[in-house]
Amino acid sequence: MARTVGIGIQSFEKLIENQYFYIDKTHFIKEWWENGDDVTLITRPRRFGKTLNMLERFLSIEYTGRGEIFEDLAIWKDEKYHIIG
Predict the structure, then answer these.
(1) Of 55, 58, 50, nearest to 85 (Cα)?
(2) For the segment 38-48, what is each residue's pLDDT rounded down to a tens digit?
(3) Could you state, in order of their start, the residue ranges of all structural domains in the chain?
């Protein structure tokens, strides 16, 4: 069955939970984390909100215990990144 494109949906959780079409960008978390830079500048072009929302969900202490959102995504393949679960 084809997935629906979630045009206008900014909530990362809603995209994942409702199985909307989503290009997995969680591998960027691993790249940023392992790069070891002191500062990372993330520019925000149009329609980039979901990626920043994904980062917030992954890195914020507010979402501790909600690791199930990431279970089928690239970042979850490496067990050391189960920090939010």
Answers:
(1) 58
(2) 888 877 766 66
(3) 25-81
| 3-class state of residue 32 by DSSP | helix
pLDDT at position 85 over 60: no
Q: Are 84 and 64 in contact (CB under 8 A)?
A: yes
Whose CA is closest to 12, among 66, 61, 78, 76?
66
pLDDT given for residue 45 in this prediction: 67
Q: What is the DSSP letter of 62?
A: G
DSSP state of 38: S
| DSSP helix/strand/coil, 5 | strand
Distance CA 18, CA 53 (A): 16
| Other CB atoms within 10 A of residue 51 CB | 17
Q: Which tokens go with 41?
A: 């500048």
